[in-house]
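User: Good morning. I'm curious how adenosine-5'-diphosphate would be positioned relative to this chain. Could you predict the structure with it bound?
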Amino acid sequence: MSAPVLQIDQVSKTFQSIRALDGVSLNVAAGERVALLGHNGAGKTTLFRLILGFTKPDCGSIRIAGEDPGTDVARNAVSYLPESVMFPKTLTGREIVTFYARLKSVPKTEVDPLLERVGLADAADRYAGTYSKGMRQRLGLAQALAGRPRLLLLDEPTSGLDPLSRQDFYSLVDDVAAAGSAVLLSSHSLSELEAKTDRVAILRTGQLVANASLEQLQAESAVPLRIRVRARHDSVVEVNERLGGARINGQSVELLCPVPDKMSRLAAISALGPLVTDFDVSQPSLDEIYRHYSTRAEKERKS
Ligand SMILES: Nc1ncnc2c1ncn2[C@@H]1O[C@H](COP(=O)(O)OP(=O)(O)O)[C@@H](O)[C@H]1O
Ligand SMILES: [Mg+2]
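Assistant: Good morning! Here's the predicted structure, ligand included:
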């Protein structure tokens, strides 16, 4: 396999007394979508700024396509969509993308295909000031995609978007990764990432506390499954007594079930026969896993 496009090795960065990043190591390969999750202040933007070469790490190393951040090779390889990107209100979408294309020495003929790709062809001649938040983010993505970057950095690209705009945005990101770019995108809003990334890296106050696929994190964190059992209309009390768990919505019982106990719990549920009308098993959500890793890191720090 070829070397990862982005290689971050034991990187630390301190501002005055704040340790913004503490021994962070993370790789992203071509075609891979990695989510960098963390609360505000966790160090996500700082990591992006280091990758871009805007600031230097105190220690550790970063390589982009095998080169140092800020070198010509690295700058040509990486593209960036900053958090809350702003564009001049009285330039059109086409003018803005043309401007960025020129900065990156990308031929003008690529501007319209880029606008097309992000679904802004029809709005290309409107002032960016009239764009919705979702359209502005897609314009930002068009700008970032100019020149076919090998590494795409998206800093909280979907924060403040409605669910539909978010889905549109992610399907664009999927296409970009499928075409071979490495994508690192940050978010503090967890639910919006589910199933959209190949790997999840969790930053907590500067430390990487997890770095694996969602499935691996689910298994490793041992956060229990949630089983919802819907009882026959007159049986919810009995179902609750026999299975334990908590009553919800008047008609259902919710059980938290460690993964290894899944089959025995299901057997207990089916033994209730007609008292049960339906059931549903849900995997732990990303939020629950995030909470698990966040609090675990906190406990380890205190102990
Ligand atoms: N230029 C700076 N000077 C001082 N402190 C900074 C600077 N940049 C970031 N920080 C601090 O570093 C920490 C991480 O910030 P940041 O990387 O912006 O987090 P995130 O993007 O995850 O919200 C925060 O405590 C922030 O206040
Ligand atoms: Mg940030």
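The mean pLDDT is 91. The pocket of magnesium ion (ligand 2) is lined by residues 44-45, 83, 155 (CB under 6 Å).
Let me know if you'd like a different ligand tried.
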